[in-house]
């Protein structure tokens, strides 16, 4: 039994539900990672419920925790994954902490990968203060892998995904602006796609010779409202990318495109995330059937979708079914392979 | 796939290592519980390292979190397990929250079990303020199961375990004083036991007819310093006791002593904890062999045991090997059965 590989996860904590560190931690532990969990907020539940209670942790708290870890020689991580961080000052502090951590480890000959999920918004809405954006922009060049969603990729690249070729353009712009060697847009749907039956997971990785490879996967669109998907995606990326990247280190000569670490990682992660989302969607469907049935039987109609009462209930029964899907985490059932014929 | 059973875990959070909620959560999730995690402190690491950084959460934070959960109708728990809570005010608040939670659920016909680990000290040392003690004493009568360690059992019963019969006496005193129907002293070694090759796990449960059954297990003593064991014990008790208790609800007539919920639960939990401790002890041994070897090879002696440097290293490599033991959590390999011939 070897000592476990180590990862530091910096993101939100919710007492109930599965977003932020609560979506990241269990999958990584199931994959035999010793996960250190640095919470940036402690809320009762995620903000989709509309109401919540709790505290944000300050930039100072983040710095203090890091000081505590460092004085106890606990900062020998293999990977750092960062997600939701509230406010520009805290993002700046996380950036400083991660850079210091990587420098300290580099002095001991250890490379620390940084999987950076630039959590700023979703569904066309910014949910952080605007002054967070430039702070993230200053950090993207330092990351090993970044995992923006569509909104964040559009924001950071400056172009909207009107049609599919815009996705490829955005990836190129992100590299030109920030130089990050590995970029994954976890899910994108072009505005001119009226059917919305599929979405694209698009990636770009820098080959050994410095040239860029762009690739994508087409995956079936699951029609439900999900929370925590990006956090799950980033944590699984941390595991799969580190695994393939580390294996590739010893390999001399060129690696075929289809076997580049980011390509393999994205295939695996997409398969696992799809499995978890399908389980979740199945349970959401059962919930809706049950609620409709109860409404018919009791004569009491369901609350209207726009009401707080309905929203709370939908959020409650819409949480990621991580616990029930845990046996899907270890063995990705990869059916969708990456394609290189980017439109 | 049914919706998962729900448990609220209230205890400490450490960014690194496995104590408090960090020792409780993963095992419960592996056992398919939807665990809500309410952290009472956020520290970089456990206090055994001698130095740590971070914050305690206030009683007000605990109340706020509960308010957030309640307003979102998220308080329909099956079990609450409570562990480390800093300070009398916070313990009082947790007590109030748990009582309110149980009352609210009772109105809807749902029974919420309370597994109460009265975390106050260990190894003959009190590590909370003395005013915490009477607050816990006021809560013990309300719990379904309490899991004091030897120090806490001696403190609460008023008798030291000079010889083994004192353990049985203490269990009886605890029932007479507090009336808790299920009590487990997770590990006890009588002072007059000079060999210390085994320890006793002692329990007491109230039968259907109101009479008390006392039982114990003799388990091999593993000679190493462990942290988080009590938290792991309490969380596994939450799962196993709830499972047997719930199964027993529908059963008419008397249940043989050996099949009472607490007896079966303690057997299972002891087996799982022993497996995790054995794995941990094996790794600690390997660590010591490695360190000794390196000292011999480099000519640089290991730091003296009393030094901070040595302590930090021992704590770091002494953390519970939960991640590596996860496959032992689901299937208890019960070899030691409960005995009823209490000395």
Rg of chain A, alpha carbons = 20 Å
What percentage of amino acids of chain A are in beta strands?
Answer: 15-25%
- How are the strands ordered across the major sheet of chain A? 3-2-1-4-5-8-9-10-11
Amount of helix of chain A: 40-55%
Output the number of helix runs of chain A. Answer: 9
Describe what this molecule looks like in 3D.
Two copies of one chain form a homodimer. With 343 residues, chain A is an alpha/beta fold. Chain A contains nine helices and eleven strands. Chain A has helices at residues 21-30, 59-71, 88-107, 132-139, 150-157, 165-178, 229-249, 261-298, 308-316; strands at 5-14, 33-43, 54-56, 79-82, 113-116, 121-122, 125-126, 145-146, 182-188, 198-206, 212-220. Chain A has a nine-stranded mixed sheet with strand order 3-2-1-4-5-8-9-10-11, sandwiched between helices. In chain A, helix 1 runs parallel beside helix 7. Chain A starts with a strand and ends in a 27-residue tail after the last helix. Chains A and B meet through helix 1, strand 2, helix 2, helix 8 and helix 9 of A and helix 1, strand 2, helix 2, helix 8 and helix 9 of B.
Can you give me a brief rundown of this structure?
The structure is a homodimer of 343-residue chains. Chain A is α/β, with parallel strands linked by helices and 343 residues long.
């Amino acid at each position: 039994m070897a000592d476990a590989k180590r990862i530091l996860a910096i993101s939100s904590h919710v007492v109930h539900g599965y977003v932020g560190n609560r979506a990241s931690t269990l999958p990584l532990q199931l994959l035999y990672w010793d996960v250190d969990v640095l919470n940036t907020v402690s809320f009762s539940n995620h903000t989709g419920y509309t109401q919540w209670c709790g505290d944000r942790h300050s930039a100072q708290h983040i710095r203090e925790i890091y000081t505590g870890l460092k004085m106890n020689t606990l900062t020998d991580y293999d990977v750092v994954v960062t997600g939701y961080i509230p406010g520009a000052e805290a993002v700046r502090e996380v950036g400083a902490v991660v850079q210091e951590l990587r420098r300290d480890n580099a002095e001991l000959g250890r490379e620390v990968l940084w999987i950076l999920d630039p959590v700023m918004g979703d569904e066309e809405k910014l949910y952080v203060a605007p002054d967070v954006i430039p702070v993230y922009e200053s950090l993207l060049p330092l990351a090993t892998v970044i995992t923006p969603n569509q909104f964040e990729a559009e924001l950071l690249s400056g172009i909207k995904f009107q049609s599919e070729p815009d996705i490829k353009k955005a990836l190129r712009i992100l590299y030109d602006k920030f130089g990050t060697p590995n970029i994954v847009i976890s899910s994108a749907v072009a505005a001119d796609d009226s059917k919305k039956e599929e979405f694209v997971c698009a990636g770009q990785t820098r080959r050994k010779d410095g040239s860029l490879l762009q690739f994508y996967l087409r995956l079936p669109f699951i029609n439900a409202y999900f929370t925590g998907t990006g956090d799950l995606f980033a944590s699984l990326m941390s595991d799969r990318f580190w695994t393939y990247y580390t294996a590739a280190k010893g390999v001399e000569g060129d690696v075929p495109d289809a076997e580049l670490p980011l390509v393999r990682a994205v295939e695996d992660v997409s398969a696992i995330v799809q499995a978890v989302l399908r389980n979740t969607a199945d349970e959401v469907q059962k919930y809706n059937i049950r609620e409709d049935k109860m409404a018919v039987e009791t004569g009491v109609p369901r609350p209207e979708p726009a009401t707080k009462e309905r929203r709370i209930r939908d959020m409650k029964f819409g949480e990621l079914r991580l616990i029930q899907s845990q046996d899907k985490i270890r063995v990705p059932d990869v059916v969708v392979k990456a394609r290189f014929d980017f439109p």
